[in-house]
Amino acid sequence: MSGGFSVSPEKIHLLEEALQNAYEKIYSEKVESIEDNIADHLLSIDDINFSLWGTVEKLAPFGVDNTKPVFLFKNVKPVEVKFFGKTKEHLEISFLKQDGRKVVAICFFANEDPRFNVLTTDTPITLVATLEKSMFRGFPELRLRIVDIF
Question: Which of 58, 65, 91, 94 is buried deepest, with most CB atoms within 10 A?
């Protein structure tokens, strides 16, 4: 009764599967709806390269009336998830391209969002991110700036 529904005793063994199926249906509809509204283009981790950056860079300057393109990465599996910074407040998620090179996605002040504390390398995620060129320590690197994770 506390769940807002009832189950007859002879069907109680079917409850767990029915709840799981209902959750998966609602979750997939939610993700599809979100995908339609927030991503400009679907990409794979293998699409991240300086050629793509050159195309994105041509759309600049970015600002209020010209926002950065937002990309969707479906079912990408992290190879490393770590927090960094003085108080471990920032998140870095690493993904591997098929050629073995690493692509990093970052989110600053991620420790304020409890969803990020449960990320693991065991579970694929749907990532929404923008592309940026970092010159940290004088080394050019393409990375993803996390907008959201599902």
Answer: 91
Domain locations in the chain? Answer: 8-38, 39-149
Look at residues 35, 100, 97, 41 and name the one whose alpha carbon lies nearest to residue 69. 41
Give alpha helix (H) positions in 6-103: 15-38, 50-57
Amino acid 27: pLDDT: 58
The predicted structure's pLDDT at residue 117: 83
Write the pLDDT tens digit of every residue in 16-59.
887 777 766 665 555 555 555 678 889 999 999 999 999 999 99
User: Which CATH code of 2.40.50.460, 2.60.40.10, 3.30.70.100, 3.30.460.80 fits the domain covering 39-149?
Assistant: 2.40.50.460
Q: Specify the pTM.
A: 0.73
Report d(CA 67, CA 70) in Å as an integer: 9
Question: Rounded distance, CA 121 to CA 80, Å?
Answer: 6
Q: Rounded to whole angstroms, what are the CA distances from 36 to 23, 33, 39, 70, 89?
A: 20, 5, 7, 12, 30
